[in-house]
């Protein structure tokens, strides 16, 4: 599929995945600009349970004036084309919305059967890389648009762990030739948490519970952006005697948590699945994973059991397996 194939639509809704990241937002923004330049009415949306709170993403949106709109968890019907970017319509990480036609631009392994109008290339480190080349293919004047290049560049940077996992030739071309707003990029790079997050982190660190025989830590933080849980877990794993850890917080409807592991005996993804079995969802990678436990299902199974006790006891059970 080429971008030119989508120009027949008079109305296009671009949808990012839920909990959108820099790549999804930047990619959506670039497509929005392209369609608008062609006189098409385009909107940029995302759904899901959470509105964007991560500081760097708010900064990206504010500084580049990205008109992204949060639409919540309710499915809606949009007129014209629905284009999911950095995700696939029907997949688990994107709230299902409806439209007259569907299109997909993504760089993840196909999870669902794709619509005819699809372009999925897994050898791109970011969806933005693919879009950068699609825009060039369509003859769009990228060079003249520094905001667009900054957004795609920052998306690639974020999706590839600071370019460390960017291997494809096309990723390298975007990295090397994009003309970006360096000042903004530097600010984005160094704006991961807010002062409130810093205080939340400080309190959480003091409440760390270390299990000596299991060589793990469990830490509860006050309600915060999920990104902070990941950062706290990364930090905790740096402690010499911590082999793996779980950082969580209590939200209105359940517990959100991050797991990190540096030992092969404890897989972070397996531990996540174990902790959420029948009461939530979780997964990830061998070293990094995360999950959510539903309050309703937790209470049905464990009553008023204290959450710190739940995590500790469950982890001990997991270690016995
Ligand atoms: Mn991506």
Description:
The chain is an alpha/beta fold and 321 residues long. It folds into 2 domains: 187 residues, inorganic pyrophosphatase (n-terminal core); 126 residues, Diaminopimelate Epimerase, Chain A, domain 1. The chain has 11 helices and 12 strands. Helix 1 runs parallel beside helix 3, helix 2 runs antiparallel to helix 6 and helix 3 runs antiparallel to helix 4. 40% of the residues are buried.
Summarize the structure.
The chain has 321 residues and is an alpha/beta fold.
Write the layout of secondary structure elements.
Blueprint: E1 11-16, H1 22-37, E2 41-46, H2 55-63, E3 68-70, E4 77-85, E5 98-106, E6 117-120, H3 127-137, H4 146-159, H5 169-177, H6 182-189, H7 195-206, E7 209-211, E8 216-221, H8 226-236, E9 244-251, E10 254-261, H9 268-276, E11 280-284, E12 288-294, H10 295-302, H11 307-320
Parallel strand pairs: 1-2, 1-4, 2-3, 4-5, 5-6, 8-9
Antiparallel strand pairs: 7-8, 9-10, 10-12, 11-12
The site of manganese (II) ion has 6 residues, from loops.
Please count the beta strands (DSSP E, at least 2 residues each).
12
- Number of H- or I-type helical stretches: 11
CATH class of the largest domain: Alpha Beta
Based on Cα principal axes, name the global outline. globular
CATH superfamily of the largest domain: inorganic pyrophosphatase (n-terminal core)
Strand content: 15-25%
Bound molecules: manganese (II) ion
Helix content: 25-40%
Task: Describe the largest sheet.
Answer: 6 strands, parallel
């Amino acid at each position: 599929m080429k971008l030119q194939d989508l120009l027949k639509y008079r109305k296009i809704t671009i949808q990012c995945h839920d909990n959108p990241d820099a790549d999804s937002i930047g990619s959506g923004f670039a497509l929005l600009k392209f369609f608008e330049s062609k006189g098409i009415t385009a909107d940029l949306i995302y759904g899901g349970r959470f509105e964007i709170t991560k500081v760097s993403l708010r900064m990206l949106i504010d500084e580049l004036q990205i008109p992204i709109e949060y639409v919540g968890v309710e499915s809606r019907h949009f007129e014209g084309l629905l284009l999911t970017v950095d995700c696939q319509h029907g997949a688990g990480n994107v709230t299902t919305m409806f439209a007259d036609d569907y299109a997909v631009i993504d760089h993840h392994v196909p999870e669902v059967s794709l619509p005819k109008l699809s372009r999925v290339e897994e050898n791109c480190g970011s969806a933005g890389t693919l879009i950068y080349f699609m825009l060039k293919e369509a003859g769009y004047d990228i060079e003249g648009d520094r905001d667009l290049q900054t957004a795609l560049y920052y998306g690639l940077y974020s999706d590839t762990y600071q370019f460390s996992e960017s291997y494809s030739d096309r990723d390298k071309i975007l990295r090397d030739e994009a003309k970006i707003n360096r000042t903004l990029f530097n600010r984005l790079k160094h704006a991961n948490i807010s002062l409130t997050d810093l205080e939340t982190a400080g309190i959480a660190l003091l409440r760390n519970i270390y299990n000596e025989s299991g060589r793990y830590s469990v830490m509860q933080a006050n309600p915060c952006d999920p990104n902070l849980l990941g950062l706290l877990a990364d930090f905790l794993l740096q402690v010499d005697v911590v082999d793996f850890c779980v950082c969580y917080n209590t939200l209105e409807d359940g517990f959100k948590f991050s797991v990190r592991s540096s030992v092969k005996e404890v897989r972070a993804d397996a531990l996540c699945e174990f902790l959420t079995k029948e009461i939530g969802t979780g997964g990830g990678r061998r070293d990094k994973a995360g999950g959510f436990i539903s309050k309703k299902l937790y209470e049905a199974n464990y009553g008023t059991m204290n959450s710190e006790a739940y995590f500790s006891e469950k982890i001990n059970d997991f270690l016995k397996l």
